[in-house]
Amino acid sequence: MSRITLSRFLIEQQRKAGTLPPELRLLIETVGRACKAISYSVNKGALAGVLGEAGTGNIQGEAQKKLDVIANDYLLDANEWGGSLAAMASEEMELPYHIPGEYPKGEYLLLFDPLDGSSNIDVNISVGTIFSILRCPEGVTQPTEQDFMQPGTHQVAAGYTVYGPQTQLVLTFGSGVHGFTLDREQGSFVLTHPDMRVPEQTSEFAINMSNMRHWEAPVRRYVEELLAGKTGPRARDFNMRWVASMVAEVHRILTRGGIFMYPKDARDPAKAGKLRLMYEGNPMAFVVEQAGGAATNGYQRIMDIQPQKLHERVAVFLGSKQEVERVTRYHQEQV
């Protein structure tokens, strides 16, 4: 039996009446090509001179790695000329990126975190790219920041690519979650993980324990129960994992279950969290929900949040449904 490449998979989905419009198929393929280029640069690392700081900062004031900038440019260059997009937005750029005038415009908006977890690059730990696709509001030819302000429920597709021992692209467009592995010899993403599902129960959790003293009470309560193990209220042992790369954490959860938590904390009470709603929270919530999991900010479903600004932050609790529902209930009980 012949292997199913990403292109073949998308074409077959397009043929199923109404499941995948042709322009959206072409856009997803283009994002996949950009991710292949990023993968090659990540794999070359020091051999290509792409490690280390870029000497610049992004809109959040964070130091950019060289590969942050390279990955951002790959995604912009690959997607600006295809005719599927009205505009793009990147975690690394303050304002939306408008399609140059010489290129045709399409009906979609693309948002992306070009290299999630880039602080891990120099130590050879998995990083990734996260993307989200929205429809451009009807009749809009020059999208502004406001046109991107759509809740996650409006996403038409989302996914991520994890650059690890293998490069894997995980994708949803609202009918399940499918994983593809990059065959480097053939240069193609090949379907290897159809219909991915998050187990409802888990004995793993991922959180940065060094911030425990800054957490709100519901998070401390939940984690202390997990740490109590067999002798505690949960009556079983839990293992903790922390990679400090959201893509790697979510990929593990999709593969074998778990809960990933990045709560808000007391160090900066004005911030709703650390992660970005539009570039990380919404696309990962879409993927996880489509795989049978759940994603909240502690109080409500992440994809129901109405964004107020392009680089809005959000607290994140996502993964196996039962665990996400429990920690969310603890937050709601405190209100």
From TrEMBL:
Residues annotated to bind Mg(2+) 2: D113, D116, E280
Pfam families in UniProt: FBPase (PF00316), FBPase_C (PF18913)
Cofactor: Mg(2+)
The protein's Enzyme Commission number: 3.1.3.11
Assembly and binders: Homotetramer.
HAMAP family in UniProt: FBPase_class1
Protein name in the entry: Fructose-1,6-bisphosphatase class 1
Organism encoding this protein: Chromobacterium amazonense
Gene: fbp
